[in-house]
Specification:
This protein has about 625 residues and is mostly beta strands. Helices cover about 10% and strands about 55% of the residues. It has helices spanning about 1-30, 55-60, 65-75, 135-140, 415-420; strands at about 50, 75-80, 90, 100-105, 105, 130-135, 145-150, 160-170, 175-185, 190-200, 205, 215, 220-235, 240-255, 265-280, 285-300, 305-325, 330-345, 350-365, 370-380, 385, 390-400, 400-415, 435-450, 450-470, 480-505, 505-520, 540-550, 555-565, 565-570, 575, 580-590, 595-605, 620-630. The strands form 5 sheets. The protein has a 22-stranded antiparallel β-barrel. The radius of gyration is 25 Å and the shape is globular. The N and C termini lie far apart (about 55 Å).
């Protein structure tokens, strides 16, 4: 009770401070002879590399999930084995727990696992996706070591009257999807409802090894449905209110792996997310308050193994930020966030709660050729102070077409609830993983006439993390236990090249990306036996990805190709490298009021045999056909 009271007092102090500051600024706004300045929330940090998947990919793939989108068009390595499996991320050699995931600015990871299953995020519920590479715990919070993925819903205040969109997809292996976006809006308010239903058998055949016949995937059917309700209200030209309610139900069978003959296991997930935010913008300042409540249930049943486990967690979150432009070149942001977790599961002895309080500040200044940014964050977990984390970034623009950027930051990840409280091997005394990240980048922009641009970016980085948590099998024990046993160094270079061209009735976009990564154990480990200098498991040293998009009149052509280098598995085996290509053909028919788009997508165009995970096969060539129609 005492710790909870301390946290609430800190949050109250932050609210009162910001509210008083905003009131004073509002009272002064009539007397200050300042030009009107548009103050916006910061969506990126100086010196970082960002990938933004093309929004046309979302429009032509309504049946996909965010994990597939990331794997196809960004440098994120996604671990998955097809339609019925989970999809987890690795960025710059980090684990899935080193990826921070924000939905409209608020974190949505599972606190029990410390990560998010991207297969449970339908692309139809998301309008914009951005991948921020590199550690930045000071800005984004706990776990932002490898990178941060932002998922946003955008509000188009120009939309008036009826908002209507319908999508349908049919494809191989029993894939069938339907989605509806229906609402009403004007310049004052908007009410939007998105609903989807999707099912698939996922009964593809797959390759195991050259000396074995192809195998048919069984017990792999999935069913998903969900609804996203949105309410947007423009109270005044300066003041807005938004609310979202996300409900989703997922029922999926879990297929056997290559060493099993059959499986009857299944998993059911039920998710509820309710968020609201209020924002007020002055001439040179902005204040924003956000609140969220999440509840997620997971039921895992495997009658062959005698497993019947149920888990539920609740998250309560409040966040308040204030931003002030100081003069013409400075901007200051301060914020506070309080998060409360409650977890109930058959895997813990008792119900578990956790309180987290964060206070941070950010200062940014922009001169003619130089931008500097400094962030500092302090968090308390159940009253205990976590590492103080600073972050500093700079961008220098010596030429109109060239800029240099750099960043250095301290980062950490607090152990997830399973690592702390899993019975009987959880360890409440685990230390946070922590360390420093550094990166340096070069950006070049070339413009040939007004219709052609070429941009190139190169980013070199290095990260050292100590107290890395691994689940190991201690001597004379039959149960795996989490331990601060590893120290990891990740370093590499990332290249991005983009060409955009436009002529009469023609648009061309070419995007190329290449990641070279070395993520190694700095010291050897006895159990499990890991040699110093060895690459982390499921961490490719080389990744290449590309997208060619060609629009001619109403026709659309998208060709994507990606290469993933070999990886080492948990059993010290090697999964070979592989090339994958996808082809999308689309056609758009426009009338005065409506727009209809038909698209055909061929996955794994060259019918390659490959594996992302050991003992898990992937489908060969298959297809899907989509219709997307709506009011313009």
């Amino acid at each position: 009770m005492h710790r909870a009271l301390v946290l609430k007092n800190w949050l109250l102090i932050g609210w009162l401070f910001l509210a008083g500051w905003a009131t004073r600024l509002s009272a002064q706004s009539d007397t200050l002879a300042l030009p009107t300045v548009t103050v916006e929330e910061k969506t990126s940090f100086s010196g970082e590399q960002i990938d933004r998947p093309d929004e046309d990919l979302l429009g032509t793939q309504p049946a996909t999930h965010v994990g597939e989108l990331l794997a196809q068009s960004t440098g994120v390595f996604v671990k998955s084995f097809g339609g019925s499996s989970s999809a987890t991320t690795s960025i710059r050699g980090g684990s899935a727990e080193h990826t921070r995931v924000l939905w409209n600015g608020l974190p949505i990871e599972n606190p029990m696992l410390g990560q998010l299953d991207f297969s449970l995020l339908p692309a139809i519920f998301v309008d914009k996706v951005a991948v921020h590479y590199g550690g930045n715990t000071a800005t984004w919070g706990n776990g932002a070591i490898g990178g941060t993925i932002q998922l946003d819903n955008k509000t188009d205040w120009k939309k008036k009257n009826l908002i209507a969109q319908y999508t349908a997809t049919n494809g191989a292996f029993g894939l069938a999807q339907q989605g509806v976006k229906l609402g009403y809006g004007n310049e004052k308010f908007q009410i939007i409802n998105r609903i989807f239903y999707q099912k698939a058998e996922n009964n593809f055949s797959y390759f195991i090894s050259e000396n074995l016949p192809r195998r048919q995937q069984t017990n792999a059917a999935t069913k998903q449905w969900g609804s996203l309700q949105e309410f947007h209200y423009r109270i005044s030209p300066r003041q807005t209110f938004n609310a979202y309610f996300w409900y989703q139900n997922n029922d999926r069978q879990l297929p056997p792996h290559a060493a099993q003959t059959r499986s009857v296991a299944y998993q059911k997930d039920e998710t509820k997310r309710l968020t609201a935010d209020w924002q007020y913008a002055g001439d040179s300042w902005l204040i924003k308050g956000q609140a969220a409540w999440y509840e997620e249930d997971l039921l895992y049943v495997d009658s062959l193994s005698g497993i019947d486990d149920f888990s539920r967690f609740n998250t309560f979150l409040g966040q308040l930020t204030g931003t002030k432009n100081i003069g013409k070149i400075h901007r200051l942001t301060v914020g506070t966030q309080e998060t409360f977790y409650r977890a109930n599961t058959d895997l813990y002895e008792n119900s578990i709660t956790q309180n987290r309080l964060a206070i941070w500040s950010n200062w940014k200044t922009d001169w003619k050729n130089l931008s500097l940014e400094l962030s500092v964050r302090q968090e308390l977990q159940d009253g205990k102070r976590l590492p103080l984390v600073p972050s500093f970034g700079a961008v220098y623009r010596p030429l109109k077409w060239a800029s240099l950027r750099g960043r250095v930051s301290r980062n950490y990840r607090s152990p997830n609830l399973n690592a702390l409280y899993y019975f009987p091997t959880g360890n409440p005394d685990l230390l946070p993983e922590s360390g420093w990240s550094r990166e340096l980048g070069l950006d070049l922009t070339f413009i040939k006439s007004n219709n052609w641009t070429v941009t190139y970016a190169a980013t070199g980085f290095r990260r050292d993390i100590k107290n890395w948590i691994r689940w190991i099998l201690p001597e004379e024990s039959f149960s795996y236990a989490p331990t601060n046993i590893a120290a990891v160094r990740s370093e590499g270079i990332e290249h991005r090249l983009e060409l955009n061209g436009e002529a009469q009735n023609t648009i061309i976009k070419i995007f190329l990306g290449y990641n070279q990564l070395r993520s190694i154990h700095k010291k050897g480990i006895t159990r499990p036996q890991i040699a110093a200098g060895s690459q982390l498991v499921y961490t490719p040293k080389h990744q290449f990805f590309s997208t060619l998009k060609y629009n001619y009149h109403a026709a659309l052509f998208i060709f994507q190709h990606r290469f993933t280098g070999e990886v080492t598995t948990l059993n010290n085996n090697i999964l070979p490298e592989y090339h994958l290509s996808d082809l999308t053909l689309g056609y758009t028919l426009k009338t005065k009021r409506w727009q209809h788009q038909l698209s055909l997508r061929v996955h794994n165009l060259w019918d390659k045999d490959y594996r992302v995970l050991e003992r898990r096969g992937m489908p060969g060539r298959y297809w899907s056909f989509s219709l997307n129609t709506g009011i313009r």
